[in-house]
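pasting input
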Amino acid sequence: MENEKLIQYFISTNLISPIKAEEIAGHFTKKNIAKNQFQLKEGKICNEYLFLEDGFMRAFAYDIEGNDVTTGFYYNNHIAFEVSSYFNRTVSKENIQALTDCTGWYITYEQLNNLFHSIPDFREFGRSVLVKGFAALKTRMLSTITETAEERYSSLLKSNPEIFQHAPLKYIASYLGITDTSLSRIRKEFSKK
Amino acid sequence: MENEKLIQYFISTNLISPIKAEEIAGHFTKKNIAKNQFQLKEGKICNEYLFLEDGFMRAFAYDIEGNDVTTGFYYNNHIAFEVSSYFNRTVSKENIQALTDCTGWYITYEQLNNLFHSIPDFREFGRSVLVKGFAALKTRMLSTITETAEERYSSLLKSNPEIFQHAPLKYIASYLGITDTSLSRIRKEFSKK
DNA sequence: TTCATTTCTTGCCATTTGGCAAGCGCTGCG
DNA sequence: CGCAGCGCTTGCCAAATGGCAAGAAATGAA
């Protein structure tokens, strides 16, 4: 099957049986996103719950002064979507853009809800995706508040080295909450050690 | 009915009908928490999804150096619980403590799941609570990264003035990601304007 | 009331991070 | 090939925030 990776992803969560995984995956639609294309544009309603099979994406928003701020990175075997816009059916403040050519599988809001209603295990899966994302963001929030920029850099380098292979420094810098100038200096200091 | 506020809370979300609201509320248990008592202690599994009817609570964790860091405030008509510990059934890294005498209504994990299975509208409600919390945290994360401490202080004062009536400065400071010394100075500057 | 504790403020100085501009190297395109 | 643009680094200095310690003010318990 072409959607083997999607099926394996469901199974790997231990929330969905192989049989159900295949059934669920059958409702997803394949999609290619070329490098630099937008998977989501601010001002639109996010309507795709996208499993990213291959490639690398970045989510970003603009602050009050118009600066581009990276809010997240997505890559292999992650769900790339904007939670609030997708579930509340509201206009997105964020953009999601492909930094490399990507392939993935998506499901619309309506389809997702139908599956949630008919397959309890898939509801559990959906909740798990939300809860994990929430917990990861809480961890990031705490580290932003309690750690120095250098510590945050070091942690990200250890936990998500893929990011450094695909994203230019300025994107990583705003994700870490610092300027690209500072990140450059931090890298210099860090490499001395 | 004694649980009138809980029922009204469900109705106010526009996700649950008055009849269903009453049915759902019937599964919640009343609870009083005295000032300074812990609603959740780190190391334990959070097992109460608590609707706070009255009172004021603070969630906090300790960073690597052992500093107490405020991760959230809860008060009237909010759900006070630790998402990750409650849904993943894992040990909590956070504490939740009453800063005033509190009253609320809680439901255990098992009860909640039973209700989720039997009442689709309550599932929607549960998802909405998660999604709103997630979105609020994303907003907070963005403001922590893009705004100055003074701007964050000003925003919090405008959006959640209740906090300043109940929590000492040091708790608010760590929530804002600064020291209490800095917050004191920021207040001084701010009051001049 | 009295005393101890906690909360908040303030001064002095250190550290972290930012702003700006220049420069270098690489890449892609005409 | 030549040039424009981007990504990254670096120097200089400024701004934001922190650390520590002292003291004033408020609070709470006996």
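fyi The radius of gyration of chain A is 18 Å.
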